[in-house]
Amino acid sequence: MLVKLEIDTGTKPEVILEATGHYSDPVVKFVLEEGYKVISINLLIAKQMKQNKLRKTKTDKIDCQNFVMIYYQNQYNKNYLKDKLEGQLQSIHRDLQQKIAIQTMFKNNFKQQLVRIFPIYGELFSDIYCEASFQILLKYTHPKCILKATKEELTKDTVKLMGMAKAGKFILNKVERLIELANNCYPCVDHDDYEVQLLQDDINQIINLQKLIEARKDLLINLTKQIKLFEILKSIKGIGEQLAAQFIAEVSNLDRFETHNQLIAYAGIEPSVYQSGKYNSKSCSITKRGNSTLRHILYMMVTCAIRFKNVPIKLYFNKKRRLEGKPYKVVIVACMNKLLRIIYALYQKNEFFQQV
Question: Model-level pTM?
Fold first, then answer.
């Protein structure tokens, strides 16, 4: 059909379709590889166009007419053919985010079960999710299991489970504290209840997911090291390898943004505008129409950068926060905006950040 249209009209047709995420990806990839331009219509714009009609009708013909109107109003995004690395990075990062979300769910469930089985166990470790904490819980899940064992058995097992060479003062203190907690604890369930097995299953799931998460992080960093933007991001104080890799995975290619304003809009941190007559609002929130994952990454970048003294983002933060008296979250968003402009300028000039 496309070839016939090209022969009849003498020009290459442009393919217009509604952006449906991974459902439309195979079609977009095929058409781009055949040398045709592909235009994606944003779902919000398409919905707004439908709502402008007085009659509530939905047909394929009307949808096509709406897409043509959007096309001639230039309210669309042009697709480009991603190289193999770009596609891999985004897929790996989205999988990483999914694994982290699943692990968080298991951690919340783990805490709920732990409160019922061993309520004051959290006093033994500052981080109950550490490897040593999990290994001890897998061996002695219920306080009754601890009280049944002798002090020598507990010491021997603790040395082995915590990966120590011998039972030093640290291990002995841990064992004594463990016995004390078991004596002072009143669990809601018995040691042979099925909830004990559920807690052990949650622990194993968290451990396995943590291994997968670390593997995904290492893979993401190794792949993004091939991209010049990686070293540019690392030159900014407060941005490490992990944040740099995640930023690149979400942005893909900065060359597709003609100006820094387009990049800011893609992140969804541009201020919204509300004006009517003589009234012009001065306190509008950000649009949040862009990539929510990228916003989260930018937030982490800024919160890390403002910990260092004499960093431009920190100085900008102090100016907005102390001199102008802006609220904390407003200043953070302004810093995110500033950081994106810095990154875009460094990339365009192919320069590393120079600390003044």
Answer: 0.78
